[in-house]
Structures
1.
Amino acid sequence: MLEVDLAGVKLRNPIVIASGILGISRGLFLRLDREGAGAVTTKSVTLRPRSGNPLPNIVELEFGLVNSMGIPNPGIELMCEEIRSAVPHMSVPIIGSIAPTSAEEAKTMASLLVESGASAVEVNTSCPNVQDIGINLINKSVELVRSIDREVDVPILVKVTPHVQDVPSFVRTLSEAGADGFTAVNTLKAMVIDVDLLRPVLGGVVGGLSGPAVRPVAVRFIYEIRKTLPGAAIIGTGGVENWRDAAEMIMAGADAVGIGTALRRGLKVINEVTDGLRSFLIERGLTLDDIRGVVP
Ligand code: DHB
């Protein structure tokens, strides 16, 4: 009863492992599948391997995490090898996340991911931690999406930064360029200072805020995207810790729900959320379709 159609990709349940969390190796893809995820998103990959920012690269606050990872990843070739060896053993789709610096790179990486077995491509143009890859590319998103759209025939999802002001015009323009859906939202650019040491906590100085603090922002983005584009696929992500948070995102209009920061409590969170959603629907005699976007 939890099956979802995400722009034509079939998910057994709406829970998608968000990018940047665990989607980095064959072993982890298979483990997340076994633990009940509906889909797994890879860490954002770049054309060449990156080692990321200096440590410390993560700080836990009472309402979420701030990370300054800097897109550490093995590069597109190694990521594709991991995907290729995992896919024949997986019962859920892999969403390949790319962090390109140009339209040329976007097209190359998207087609390599799809050849390796990724079922959809997520375009991350909103990493808060890397100058030439991240938030500065918001205005280039259209060009990137257009070039990927000409190259691959799987769904293209754009990861939306909460720094976008005019959500309706942003998503409408991207949809016209070929985006099939949106993952909303990415982290919010943030900073934490150690007052004893009189200096920033994070090695990268600034970072991206995730977790419960960003959830109401994500809910508002989902709502605005759904109102603007009733037919777009939406993965709502940002601070989902339990089934009620997931239900809230679906009621705002999400097809599926990303989980990232909550996995710091262990992979059992995945089944807790799907079990809770299922019980809620059964008790109320409702389906996911009944609650999706019910908010007027
Ligand atoms: C990275 C961090 C983020 O918070 C994000 O949203 C995307 C990428 C990173 O630095 O790897």
2.
Amino acid sequence: MTILLSKSGDLAALHAMNADLHCHSTVSDGWLEPVEVVRRAKTNGVDLLALTDHDELGGLALAAAAAAESGVGFVAGVEVSVSFAGETIHIVGLGIDPGNPDLIAGLRQVRAGRDARARRMSEALAAVGIAGALEGAHRFARNPALVSRAHFARHLVASGVMPDVRTVFDHYLVRGKPGFVEHEWASLEEAVGWIVGAGGIAVVAHPARYRLSAADMTRLLDCFVAAGGEAIEVVSGAHSDDEMRRFATVARQRGLLASRASDFHGEKESSVDLGRCNPLPSDLTPVWSRLI
Ligand code: AMP
Ligand code: MN
Ligand code: MN
Ligand code: MN
């Protein structure tokens, strides 16, 4: 009985922490430098922060140093781009060793593919009369090795093609639209393998955002777990309350650890600020139980 009480007390203390385990800096498609991300997290009362740039580890050292200085708990993270069932899936790695050679080599390979995709996107946009999009996207990409659709979108807004980033995505950058090109990212097994091999916990990012049939979603989760994945973002800046409840049920049914994540990119583009997500349902086991 005492043990049970003390365990539930620990769980309550974990839930009381302000953990935000997914966000971006200028090392990928965020607007803030890694150090500025940490500063904003501190201001917003974040207790435990993971920086999870797309396919890149380059911001982790600076962010970790800034976090240590300002007393914010820090988790080294990454968000890996994956292809599964014809859809792009994002797998977040938490608590990774940024010096792990296989992880570094795998991400380098993903970035090389990303670079080639950016050139094809630019050609596709040129074919519908939008010239110079690659150069334009590069003006918004602080890291030349990491050009994302977000940088293309910002350029198209700045050059007056569309009023805002969301509208650019809807009209140009999603499947079926003129600036979208098919691309093969890492496999699910590779991504989870790199993360687990680097000592990290693999997390399915914003699961409600994928256009998968129910059967493919089941298969995604089966393959993810079979590959060594253990956690899922239940609370995400990209989830509605209904979506949060849906994936809380998935976490319960599959015994997955639950993550809480703003996916903050910047004030102008993110609806949820750092550390301002809803709490996790109190019966779920927070993924950060394994990270602190
Ligand atoms: P990429 O990895 O190059 O395919 O770009 C994906 C990034 O684009 C995401 O991480 C978001 O930052 C951004 N993004 C994707 N879809 C949208 C959307 N509908 N509206 C605004 N930003 C989006
Ligand atoms: Mn992004
Ligand atoms: Mn994502
Ligand atoms: Mn993200």
